[in-house]
Design goal:
Chain lengths: 357, 410
């Protein structure tokens, strides 16, 4: 009995090992692409992943994550690379790239735009400014209100977000210092171009926290952008912060009476990057070159994220044009990736301290 | 034994050994599993919280030169020169970003300084690097002239350090004053005490709710008790997230409870229940209640009802009889339940974050922050190790005063 059992166990182990080995063999023709899920992920699947699978026959495993560099760091440090291509927020990109977590992407893999403009000229400069990634979308953090719950006075500016006398009710914000600190300063009268300069000083940080103090008891905190439209819909909050595409998707697909306020929005890029040491580096480059062509990028306007290629503009749905961050750049500021690389950790701690007060 | 021959004895021994090996084989998968998923991660966490060789590996020569530094003024030209050469090398190997992050951790705001300086230093070649390196460094940013920066670099260069534990205890080490309370931010002690208080409240509530229910269940006939136990277990078959979200639907401003209260005219204004500590306590008590009921129930089932009857027939009043006879016999179950609930709730993370709002910040959330966002795994490890130590301490106290041997899970 004992013998047959141990033979059984070793047979099982052998089978398991063979199974793993065969998985490894299969993995040759597949590529793991990681992005943010939700409506954004769906748009990427429609316009980038599915066409790529169809045209090349490569199987793409499309997975979700919620940002940050922790998972990438863990994979690169342990040498056990599970992800090949990752959609990175530029705030994290700066850091991931300089820490050596990402491969350098040569720009000569990028094809010319649909109208024949060479890639270097076709992309907006910010999209190619980091050597580790190719810009994919321009997106923005905005706030929105629901026509049904706002009442008679409508919000129009970033100062209104902090004005509970004018617009009473809860505000929903993502629980982190990023964007919230910038908004507090802008609402307190700091000129948009000076925001990061002021925020780098202790007095500026104190000023931002003071402004946040004025609405602290009215803030509902959430951890993921996808929670935001729900909060706005069920009346959990009157003014809700989120990525513009999340609101746009609810407006367009579900006909929600949400209105986006663009004043003081903080825009940023998302970019495709390849994990350092990925065994499928070349295939990953091929995917990025494919996904950042004019047409797939134009498809991102489905969720109101602006394309990073100029040649994509004529291919977009014209109805989406006024909802793209690129149509409102004058009202907002570019997220300071360098600033957050410097102060992300110390302000993160201070922010938590402030939460506890 | 004397009646056995040596051969027989040997056979018996080998049969015994075989049995033992077979028994061991059965346990091996579990043992390997525990080693891999439990012991190894904890060991690596403890190790990481004190061992941090990154800076020492990146700029070994600079640190070597800094050994002779008196700590009073900017390090001498020679040291700066060595650092410039090393920075130049790092920039070429694309490692300056790593150094930037490490320096930034030791001295806030250094990330961009290191990166921009590295770009400038990387342009220098050969003799230029050797002659002008130090000057380029100082010209690139005035921060390089700060004494406290170099002190921070020196500290960060230690391969073995207890600095992370200091930070985790809201302390810091200053060159002139030694260990003192951290000036910038003090959050960790507050978070620890808050987490423990919450866990305690939840444990007490679970005991208060679970005890009578288990008592009632233990007194029922087997069939009915089993039926009701299924109801206790039912929440286990639902995902944790779903249960938490259900509480959001119940507690929110326009939620079920408020609509009901306003509908029957008990109140005109909705109560603020969601995103408060109240919501956290309610939701977590609900989620953890089965962990209290199950051990309590199994212990109570085993108690012979005749003990209580005997006490009563001998003339004791019901309440003293309960306190003297019944309660002590249920203590093993109560201890086990309380310990389970307490320890689980100390590490709880999702529920407070979802329903607790501003108050929902627990020590586990800040550990997650350091793991995922700030990437300071060493600090996260130190915080985790302290939490582990704290729990072990509490367990030890518990063992001293109550005795761990009487814990009974069923």
């Amino acid at each position: 009995m004992a013998r047959s059992l141990s033979t059984g166990i070793s047979a099982f182990a052998l089978a398991a090992a063979m199974g793993l080995a065969s998985l490894g063999a299969h993995a040759e023709e597949s590529l793991t692409v990681v992005s943010w899920g939700g409506s954004y992920g769906a748009a990427q699947k429609n316009h980038m992943i599915d066409p790529f699978q169809k045209d090349t026959g490569v199987k793409v495993l499309f997975e979700d994550y919620s940002g940050g560099v922790a998972e990438m760091k863990a994979q690169v440090e342990s040498g056990n690379i599970q992800w090949d291509v990752v959609d990175v927020e530029v705030i994290d990109l700066e850091r991931a790239c300089s820490e050596g977590l990402l491969e350098t992407i040569p720009h000569d893999i990028l094809p010319a735009g649909a109208d024949g403009t060479p890639a270097e000229k076709d992309f907006i400069p910010d999209a190619l400014s980091n050597e580790c990634a190719i810009g994919n979308i321009v997106w923005s953090v905005v706030y929105a209100y629901n026509e049904k719950t706002i009442g008679n006075t409508k919000a129009t500016s970033i100062a209104d977000f902090f004005d509970t006398a004018k617009i009473p009710g809860k505000r929903a914000m993502r629980k982190r210092p990023q964007v919230n600190m910038e908004w507090a300063l802008m609402a307190d009268g700091v000129a948009p171009k000076d925001v990061y300069e002021v925020l780098a000083t202790p007095e500026g940080q104190e000023r931002a926290f003071k402004k946040l103090d004025t609405i602290k008891k009215d803030i509902v905190w959430f951890d993921s952008w996808s929670q935001a439209p729900q909060l706005l819909n069920d009346g959990g909050a009157v003014l809700v912060q989120s990525a513009n595409g999340r609101f746009y998707d609810s407006i367009r697909k579900e006909g929600k009476p949400f209105v986006i306020v663009w004043d003081g929005h903080v825009y940023d890029l998302d970019a495709w990057a390849v994990l350092k040491g990925s065994p499928k580096k070349d295939l990953a480059f091929k995917f990025i070159a494919y996904a950042t062509q004019s047409k797939p990028l134009a498809g991102m306007s489905d969720v109101a994220y602006g394309p990073t290629r100029k040649s994509s503009t004529p291919m977009m749905d014209p109805a989406a044009a006024p909802h793209l961050p690129t149509a409102h750049l004058d009202k907002g500021i570019r997220a300071g990736s360098e600033f957050w690389a410097d102060y992300g950790e110390s302000l993160g701690e201070k922010f938590n301290e402030w939460l506890l007060k | 034994m004397s009646s056995l021959t040596t051969t027989e004895a040997r056979q018996a021994a080998s049969a015994q050994r075989k049995k033992r090996i077979t028994a061991f084989m059965f346990v091996v998968p579990l043992l390997v599993f525990i080693l891999l998923t439990f012991v190894a991660p904890i060991a690596s966490m403890l190790w990481r919280s004190v061992h941090h060789p990154t800076v020492a590996e990146l700029i070994p020569h600079t640190l070597e030169a800094l050994k002779d530094w008196d700590g009073k003024a900017v390090p001498d030209q020679h040291t700066l020169q060595i650092f410039a050469v090393e920075l130049n090398g790092l920039a070429k190997e694309r490692l300056s970003g790593k150094l930037a992050e490490e320096f930034n951790r030791a001295y806030t705001g250094m990330s961009s300084v290191v990166k921009s300086t590295a770009r400038k230093v990387a342009k220098l070649k050969g003799d230029d690097l050797r002659d002008k390196g130090a000057q380029t460094l100082l010209d690139a940013n005035p921060k390089w002239q700060r004494t406290d920066l170099w002190y921070a670099i020196q500290r960060a260069g230690e391969k073995y350090t207890y600095d992370y534990y200091l930070t985790a205890l809201d302390l810091e080490l200053k060159p002139d004053t030694g260990i003192q309370v951290r000036e910038e931010t003090q959050i960790y002690l507050q978070l620890y005490s808050k987490t423990l208080t919450m866990a305690l409240v939840i444990t007490l509530l679970c005991a208060a709710l679970g005890y009578p229910l288990s008592y009632y269940l233990a007194g029922l006939s087997e069939n009915r008790a089993n039926l009701l136990l299924v109801l206790v277990l039912l929440p286990f078959w639902t995902s944790l997230l779903v249960r938490t979200t259900a509480w959001i639907a119940l507690l929110q401003t326009n939620g079920v409870i408020n609509s009901f209260l306003m509908g029957v005219g008990l109140t005109n204004e909705p109560f603020e229940m969601l995103y408060t500590s109240f919501a956290t306590v309610v939701a977590m008590t609900h989620i953890l209640l089965p962990f209290m009921i199950l051990p309590l129930y199994s212990v109570m089932r085993g108690i012979d009802p005749s003990y209580m009857r005997a006490a009563l027939s001998l003339g004791d009043k019901p309440i003293p009889a309960f306190a003297k006879i019944y309660l002590p016999m249920t203590l093993p179950g109560l201890s086990a339940g309380a310990l389970l609930v307490f320890i689980i709730s100390v590490g709880y993370y999702i529920t407070p974050a979802l329903v607790g709002g501003t108050d929902g910040q627990m020590i586990s959330n800040i550990i997650a922050f350091h793991m995922q966002r700030s990437n300071n795994w060493e600090l996260a490890a130190a915080l985790g190790s302290l939490l582990l130590a704290l729990i072990l301490l509490l367990y030890w106290l518990y063992d001293r005063f109550v005795g761990a041997s009487n814990i009974k899970l069923g």
